[in-house]
Amino acid sequence: MGFRRVVTGHDTNGKAVVVSDAEFASSGHGPDSIWAADAPPSFPDAGARPEFAGPLIPLPGGFHVIRLSFPPRFDPDNWADSSDPVQAAAAAMAQISTSVAVVDDPNPPETYGAAPDFTGFHATASMDCLMQLTGESVCVLEDAEIRLAPGDWLVLNGVVHAWRNDGDQEAVLIGMIAGAKHSGAPLREH
Asked: Across residues 152-161, what is the average pLDDT?
């Protein structure tokens, strides 16, 4: 699935104009970046792409509009042999960290208990506002699972979470990530 992005701006006389109108193919894996900035926008402007270090999480005060998809039967527990929880969590974190800047988490993987998909647990310095477009996805928290159907919105406030897709079709979400300050996951009492 591709998408079209139309960007507006102001010409030298201050008139509203279309700066670009282009079709983009989805990456097919990971999030697709629609528009992002590491700082609040300031207008009028020429509609040029703002500075964004990326790849996913903006700096505090910045934003990132994304399209996120999970393939059918996506499950972080399948990334590594989950018979060794510590090794499985380390392998999942290594994979997640290639595209997401995760916050420090002082908790060993086994402190999350027997929650399914804990191998994919991570937290980011962001507030993520996401809407399920197609398919269904599951946001896994330490003690809860949030099943999202088309039209459902989820607001993640820097919490430790993981994602799963139990369905037979691609699960697609769209939303905005706002950069935030985050002091790290709190240490849990055992």
From this structure: 95
pLDDT tens digits, 115-136: 655 677 888 999 999 999 999 9
Token couple for 167: 């369905």
Strand partners, 21: 6
Please state, in angstroms and rounded to a whole number, the distance separating the CA atoms of residues 66 and 54. Answer: 12
Is the torsion defined by CA of 55, 7, 158, 27 positive or negative? negative
Helix (H) or strand (E) holding 28: none
Placement of tokens 């207008």 in the chain: 43
Q: Where are the alpha helices (DSSP H) in 79-162?
A: 85-96
Question: What is the per-residue pLDDT across 10-69, written as a single tens digit (0 to 9) for each?
Answer: 999 999 999 999 998 887 767 899 999 999 999 999 999 999 998 899 999 999 999 999
Side-chain half-sphere of 124: how many Cα atoms within 13 Å?
Answer: 23
Full-model pTM = 0.86
Look at residue 31 and give its three-state secondary structure: coil
**Which amino acid makes up residue 179?**
G
Residue with tokens 């962001």, as numbered in its chain = 126
DSSP string for residues in 62-110: -EEEEEEEE-TT--GGGSS-TTSHHHHHHHHHHHHTTT--BPP--S-GG
Q: Is the CB of residue 7 less than 8 Å from the CB of residue 19?
A: yes
Task: In whole angstroms, give the CA distance from residue 175 to residue 190.
Answer: 35
